[in-house]
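Look at a sample.

——
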Amino acid sequence: MTRINRAIALLERGQPVYYTSTMELTYDNGRALAGTWADYIRLDLEHGPFDVKGVREFMRGLRDASHSRDGLPGPAAIAELPIDGTDEATVRANSWMIKQLLAQGVHGLILCHAESPEAVRAFVESARYSFQSLGVGQALGQGRRGHGGQKFPAEIWGLSEHEYLARADAWPLNPEGELLLGIKAENQRALARVEESVAVPGLAFAEWGSGDMCMSFGYRVKPERPYPPELQAVMDRVWNACRKAKVNFLCIAEENDITALLDKGLRILRVYDPKLAEIGRAHVARATRRSPNGSQP
């Protein structure tokens, strides 16, 4: 099976994934970012305008200019939702945003301020079609994404509508899925139940949202690293919750810690210098050659 989502293709190989962000939702910017150094593009709809038409044009530009590199597809687009995962009712009431964005062909979604497992379940269920049965039962309810919006995203992904319906599902819950779903546990309320939230089936990654989390502890400006002990303990708690749930932990990497983070198993990273991404890719490639089975050295 040829992957549509570059980030998933890399994660399946144990390779690191790096992302960049944009608020410029235009066809031309989609074309421009098709050649980005990053593996996925975060569409910042939390802080930028919620412009569905802009997302549609961006995805058209990304599709028209993307090309395979290193044998894998071009960059994926992951949309950051402007709603908070306060509780189930909040996510249910705003699930139209999830459906609208998926109908524009994005490759994944991020739920901010995910404060409860009930909210996370509502998020995952809203992104899934009702005929998908993996994980449905005690842990998840039936999917709530409806028929009728699949034509355009199928065109963006280069699939028939039938193929799109089969593959527009949450990975790794569905091994053939192409949607990358993630959450931010980025305040003290979210922290209180983070172990439950990250264990909801259908998630591929979670992050501790360091800027907002620091504010929730009373910091107006995020401290420089190394973090104060109380903040380091928070980061470690979210990281450990992810490891227990077998969910990728996303965090920022810097020059002095990128290789150490990769050696500890982190595979989704934000770097502000593209050169660090190349350092990280080369480091993991060398480790993989030393460990043919893909395990960490």
About this structure: The beta strands are 17-22, 40-44, 76-84, 108-112, 170-171, 179-184, 205-207, 248-252, 268-270.
